[in-house]
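> tool_call: predict_assembly(chains=two)
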Amino acid sequence: MRKMLLLGIIAFSFNAFSNTDSTFIRKIYDTALVQGHAYENLRSLCKDIGARITGSAEAKMAVQWGKSILEQYELDKVYLQEIKVPHWERGTKEAAWLTDEKGKVYKLHIIALGGSVGTHGLIEGEVLQVESIEELEAMQPSQVEGKIIFFNRPFDQKMIQTFKAYGACVDQRWEGTNAASKLNAKGVVIRSMASSSDDHPHTGSMHYDEGVNPIPGAAISTNDADLLTKWLKKGKVILKMEMDCRIYPDQLSHNVIGELSGNKDDQIITFGGHLDSWDVGEGAHDDGAGIVQSIEALRILKDLGYEPNHTLRCVLFMNEENGNFGGKNYAKFAAEKKEKHLCAIETDRGGFLPLGFDVVGNEEQLAFVRSFMPLLKYYDLLKFNPGYGGVDISPLREYYPEMLQLGMSVNSQRYFDYHHSEADVFDAVNKRELELGAAAMAVIIYLVDQYL
Amino acid sequence: MRKMLLLGIIAFSFNAFSNTDSTFIRKIYDTALVQGHAYENLRSLCKDIGARITGSAEAKMAVQWGKSILEQYELDKVYLQEIKVPHWERGTKEAAWLTDEKGKVYKLHIIALGGSVGTHGLIEGEVLQVESIEELEAMQPSQVEGKIIFFNRPFDQKMIQTFKAYGACVDQRWEGTNAASKLNAKGVVIRSMASSSDDHPHTGSMHYDEGVNPIPGAAISTNDADLLTKWLKKGKVILKMEMDCRIYPDQLSHNVIGELSGNKDDQIITFGGHLDSWDVGEGAHDDGAGIVQSIEALRILKDLGYEPNHTLRCVLFMNEENGNFGGKNYAKFAAEKKEKHLCAIETDRGGFLPLGFDVVGNEEQLAFVRSFMPLLKYYDLLKFNPGYGGVDISPLREYYPEMLQLGMSVNSQRYFDYHHSEADVFDAVNKRELELGAAAMAVIIYLVDQYL
C-alpha cells in the first residue's frame, strides 16, 4: 500500500442526537416495512383511479381519493386549495407512418406531446433529422419549410445520474416545435426522452411561444428513432401522422392538503409530491409513489404518537406535469397569507431505492443536513449533496428564498424506462423500495422538525 | 439548529491518487455504459444457454460458452480447471395438493429443494406447521411421526439488508429435512425464502446428514404458505405430493479461467462469480450478472490498454449453488501450486445498482479500501463496510487467511423476489444497473492492482 499519513485539525459541527432519535427512527422503519400502507395506497391510486392528467375526470377523482385517504388518518386538518389549471386532451386518434422511396411502410409507436395541437386530418412531410435546436436554427428556411422535423439527440448514456441526461436533451421536447414552426415546418417528432431502447413512446410537456403558429408535436419510441435514422441514411423518408388532441379552456382543480399542527410555533414544514400524472400508464412512479410516500410519512408519525414542534403539512400538488399551477399557487397563497415556512421537502423521482436527499440551501444548511448522516447510514441513506428540491416546491423559493429545500434522491437508473409512458404502472414498483422511501421521508421530516 | 461545534485532531491515511486515476476511472465507466458487452453477453447466457444447474447439459454448454467468450477477448491465458461436482436432477413430476377436512382441494405452487430425494409415488401426510427447527425438536416423536412438516418462519421484513433476512431463515431449508427425518416425519415443505408475496416457489440447496433417512423436501410460494397457515387455523390439512427428483453419481465439470498477466510480479487478483445456476428461470441475477460483469471488467481493462502490475484472473466458478466444489477446489489448487494471492473479489448479489464493496480484512485493509471513497463517490459508490466476500472466494480464506477479500455490495431490495425461482430471467435485469456493476468491478480491480 502506497500511502501517506496526515494529521489535521478538522472543525465540524453536529447536532446533539439522543438515543431517542435512533430508537424513533428504527420505529419509523419498522412501521413502514411491517405495517406499511404505502403499497396498498399506491395500488388503489393506480388501479382505482388510474392515469390522471390535469383537467380529466380521473384527476377530479384523484383529488377526492387524496382527501378521503388523508381524512381517514384523522389528522388535525384536511382541506382543498382551489387553483386554475390547463385542460388538454389527447383525443382518440394517434397514428403515424413512415414511407421510404420504394414505398415501404412502417407504423410508428407514437404519442402526442402534452399541449400539442392536433393535425386536423392526416398530414405528411419529408423527415428532416436534427440533433439540436441550434442545428435547426442554423438552416435556411427553404431546407425546413413543409418538412417534419425529427429531433434525435439521445440520452447521454455516460451520465451516471439519468436526471442529468434527461435535462441535457429535454429542450428538444419543450422548445422544438417553436423552433420548427418559426421556419415553417409542418410538425415535429422527437426521440423519446428515455435511457432504454424499447418500443414505448414517452410523452411530456411542450409549449407554444406567443405569436408562433402552433404545429403538432409528438414523441416516437427510442427503437423507432433508431429505425428512422437508419432509413434516413438510405434516402428520403415521408412521415404521415394524425392526432386529434385539443386544448380546452382552463378548469378549476385543487391541491389536497393534510396537516398535523405544531406544538411549539406556527412555522410550517411542507412535504409532498404531485397528484396529477400523464394520461398513459398509471402514474405509478411519476408520481403516485411520491404521493403515497408523503401521505405515509405523515400517517406513520401520527400513528407513532409523534407530537410535532412545527406544523407538518403534506401537500398533494395538482398539475406538476403541464403548468405547475399547483406549486405556483401554493407558494403564492402561502406568501399572501404571510405563512411562516421552515422547510420544504419533495419526493418525485420514482418509488426506487432511496439514497439520501438533495439539499437546496447554503453551506450551513448543507452541513446541518449532513449532520444527520451518522443516524442514517445504517439505512443506506448515504448521499446528501447540493442539488434540486423538486418542481412543486421550487416556486416557494421566490417568496422564501432562504428556506431549506430537500428533494429525496433515489436510484435513478430505471426511472426513464417508465417515465411518461404506458410502462409506468403499479407492477413496476417494488414494495420494499417504496416503503423505504416512505420511511426516509418520515425520518427527514422528524429530524428537521426536531433540529431546525 | 441546536448544535455544537467541535475541534478535533483527526489522523487519516490516504493513497496518493493522481489525475490519471480519476481519468482512467471515467474511461472505464464510459466504456461500460456506451460500448458495454455485459448486457448482450447476459442475454446470450440466459437465452442461448438458459438455466444451468451443475451436472446438466446446460452447465456443460455454459463452460464452453464462458471459454469461448474469454477467448474472443484475446487475453493472455484462457483455460479450464477440472473439478468433480454433484449431479442432481429435478425430473419431470412435481406436484402437491392440500385437502381440508371438508374435502376442499388446492393445488400448491411447489418446487423440490435441490438435493432432495423423490417421493417414489404420491405420498401424503397431515401438515404440522412450525416456525423453527428448535420448535420441531422440542416436540414429542408421536406428534411428528408420519406428518409433513411445514417450516413457515418468514423473512423478517424489518431487516434493511435482505441478505440478513435470508440468513435468518435459511436454516429451515438447509437443515429442516434432517430435523424432520429424525422424528420420522414423511416429508418437508418450507415457505419460500423470499421477501415478496407472490406465487413463485423458490428452490435452493438442502442436505442430508449421514445416517439420516432421506425424506423429500420442497418449497411452496409465499402466497401458498399464507394460505396453508389460514387453512391450518381452521382444522386438519392433508398434503399430498409427488416429486421424482434423483441424485446421480458425481461428474466432471470445470471452472473457467481467463487471465491478463501481471508486469510487476506473480501475485494474483482473483475476481468472479458463479457460472452454474438453479434449474429454473434463467439464472440472470444469480449469477449470470456476476459472470458477465467479471468478464466485462477484464474486457474493459484489456480494451483500454491497461497493463496490470499483478495477474488479473477472472474465474467463472462452477457449482456454487449445491456444493461449492468450484470454489473449494480453486482454493485447494491455488495452495497446492503455491500461488501467491493478493486479493479476491466476488460479484454474486444480482445485477442491481452497485453501492460499494463489503470488506473482509483487518482494520488496515478496511482503511485501505475506504481510502478509495473520494474517487468513487461521484459514481454513487458510497458503502464500504466490513462484510462478506462471497461463497466462491471464501474457501481461499483457509489457505490465505490474511488476504483481502471484497464482495460487491448492491441494492438488495429486489434480489429475493427473483432468487432461485422462475422469475430470475434476463428481462428482470436493468441494462444500466448491470453495466454500472461491471464498471465498479473494473474500477476496484484497477485500484487494488495499483495500490495494494
